[in-house]
Fold:
Amino acid sequence: MAGSNSGQPQFIASTGNQSFSNAPLIQNADTDQIVVPDRKSWKNLFAYMGPGFLVSIAYIDPGNFETDLQSGAQYKYELLWIILVASCAALVIQSLAANLGVVTGKHLAEHCRAEYPRRSNFVLWILAEIAVVACDIPEVIGTAFALNMLFNIPVWIGVLLTGLSTLVLLALQQYGVRKLEFFIAFLVLTIAGCFFAELNYAKPVASEVLKGLFVPQLKGNGATGLAISLLGAMVMPHNLFLHSALVLSRKIPRSVRGIKEACRFYMIESGIALMVAFLINVSVISVSGAVCSSSSLNREDQASCEDLDLNKASFLLSNVLGSWSSKLFAIALLASGQSSTITGTYAGQYVMQGFLDLRLTPWIRNMITRCLAIVPSLIVAVIGGSAGAGRLIIIASMILSFELPFALIPLLKFTSSETKMGQYANSTAVSAVTWIIGSLIMGINVYYLTTSFIHFLLHSHWKLAAVVFLGIFGFSGVAIYLAAIAYLVFRPNKKVTGLLALTTPESREMVNNSSSTSMYCLPREDIVNMQLPQRRQTEDID
Structure:
């Protein structure tokens, strides 16, 4: 970070690969933005409300519902503690993503492009794109299931109809970022209301639910697989790219106090949104566990519980709790699937813009991602039916879990680096906690991958030569996976990022001691326009 002898506040604003001192990010303020008042007040929290709810959608998408239903059906409340741990980890990790954007003015994908060599950057981009598609697959299938439940539309036709959600997204964009965020919050609360009503129908035993939340246990390889699926569905790699970019739509004071306040309020806002998502996930598992452990189940319902998916859940709830319960589940599933369209589109756009410096019109980007998700979903829905589509959701969730290190490690490295974050870098305690969280997630992934592969080899009926070949191929893949993780962990950060903050102790002290000094950072025009290309008016939050 360059120093200054003038005693005046100095800024370094990043545009592309260049940095210019004392240059604003955009030249005019006539853009759709939310202005955070330059005052010390808890009311400022309302100006920061919004990005957390967009991010929280990824924690209550159809992929989460699928894994929640299966964990409740097979293990009752035993895996609830995974949701608690994953939610706490998600709050810490999402807060780091928000901090990275607030402090540096660049989102995670842009930092990756600046930091890593071209080949490494290309691989990270491919993995990020796969994560976006893997996130979109459950949304496509979940929406198709919801349409089937409500209107008896065949699943494969519902998969095709999900492409029309692009038009819904474009219709929402023209009304402004604040209205879009309110709409997303409304959908989240709708999902919450539906499942809280389901709880009233199912009436799970509170003491057993609390035991499942606070007593960790994993019984069997199947429980480990579902635990990884729950982690993959809760802590998603594309969400780290998304959150670090969404915070750039706010106009915040660039004083030390203003930056610290922004980081603190974004953490509080994320905590509120993720708490709602946590309660929804707990409700889904509790309803599934209570219904499938009921003594009044007939043989058909018991068979459904043994291989429960989103489509079977509707019939199960209808048979056990009544038709209204089934309709509530379908409405929640439809709201979840459609709201996921927005976060998936934005995440894909930010990933492409950040890694490749390539921007596409939102509807084109949405159609590309949606087509990549529709093709495998349609093939599986036609060949394997609803059961095959349900298994595809589980596979997509596990892909997200295995890909998490390739977004999480760069985030931890960047936010712990003083060359990128300056005085706002993670403390030793925060760094230790976040690295422990990341190491545990990666360790569980590697353990499950190796044990499952060994079990497959030992119990396969193939010839010895084929088993040996698969063993060499599989363990080579594990070695490459571990080597890639080690590369990201041990490679030192080499690029110094210009911080969007005051650069000298004198200037920081001047701003802190002067109540009349107001230093603002205008929001990123490319980020704002990527979300809302049609609006051109400023919105102040008083």
